[in-house]
Amino acid sequence: MHNNIQCQVLNCHFNSEGICEADGIEVKPQGNVATSSLTTFCETFVPRDDDSDDAYLI
Ligand code: SF4
């Protein structure tokens, strides 16, 4: 069952055509406090391991 999280981080393991399919996500501020959406990030992001570009691998 799909959640309703739209995400354009298409190289994430959990991303399926712009929809996040993770069971849940954790979003954190960059630093102590977020001042806009630009200063938040998804902690749940995992690079897609079937990507042929090794630059995405940890
Ligand atoms: S885990 Fe985070 S980065 Fe990955 S698809 Fe879901 S919302 Fe996007």
Q: Give the number of domains.
A: 1
What's the count of strands?
4
Helix segment count?
A: 0
Largest sheet properties: 2 strands, antiparallel
Main sheet: which strands, in order across?
1-2
The molecules bound to the chains, other than polymers, are: iron/sulfur cluster
On the 0-100 scale, what is the average pLDDT?
88
* General form: globular
Radius of gyration: 13 Å
Element order: H for helix, E for strand: EEEE
Short description:
The chain has 58 residues and is an all-beta fold. It is 0% helix and 17% strand. The site of iron/sulfur cluster has 12 residues, from loops.
Model description:
- This protein is mostly beta strands and 58 residues long.
- It has one domain (1-49).
- The chain is built from no helices and 4 strands.
- A two-stranded antiparallel sheet has the order 1-2. A two-stranded antiparallel ribbon has the order 3-4.
- A hairpin with a 2-residue loop joins strand 1 (15-16) and strand 2.
- The N and C termini lie far apart (29 Å).
- The structure holds iron/sulfur cluster (SF4).
- The site of iron/sulfur cluster has 12 residues, from loops.
